[in-house]
Design brief:
four-stranded antiparallel beta sheet; 1 helix; 13% helix; globular
């Protein structure tokens, strides 16, 4: 009785080891951007990859205790990066295409047409948290207090 139990256990362990050994390899993460500034740190909170070449990451740069909103962008699949200050902190972002996108800020919306390298003020609709656009003119937003809005321009 005891020998058959040990044999069964060894068989089960052999089957488990074979399954583990044949499992697909786990993906490996590779660093593609490293922020290395003295007396400063960078914290990224949101990432968007709206097309084959454009990547945009939103966050904050903290230098000597002062926090500033920033975006880190790449227009060559992450080979080179540009850190750009923003006027306001981005609550959320939506990209319609590789170039066209919007960020929701405390004071309203800002719009880009170049993968986030430059931003222009849009709607001054306050209280928004998220937006979604069907095309460059038709979009919806939600926020507080108890807010749902639509734009056609």
């Amino acid at each position: 009785m005891r020998v058959s139990g040990v044999v069964a256990l060894l068989c089960a362990l052999g089957i488990a080891f074979r399954a583990w050994a044949q499992s697909p390899p786990q993906p490996r993460w590779k660093s593609i951007y490293f922020y290395d500034e003295d007396y400063s740190s960078l914290s990224l909170h949101d990432l968007h990859w709206p097309g084959p070449t454009c990547i945009a990451a939103f966050g904050e740069q903290i230098t000597r205790g002062r926090s500033k909103p920033v975006i880190v962008t790449s227009s060559d699949q992450g080979k080179t990066w540009t850190l750009t200050p923003l006027k306001s902190f981005a609550r959320s972002a939506f990209f319609l295409s590789e170039r066209m996108g919007w960020i929701v800020t405390e004071s309203g919306l800002e719009r880009t047409g170049d993968c986030g390298r430059t931003w222009e003020k849009g709607s001054r609709q306050k209280g928004l948290v998220r937006v979604w656009f069907r095309d460059e003119a038709l979009g919806w937003g939600v926020g507080s207090p108890k807010k749902a809005v639509v734009t056609r321009d």
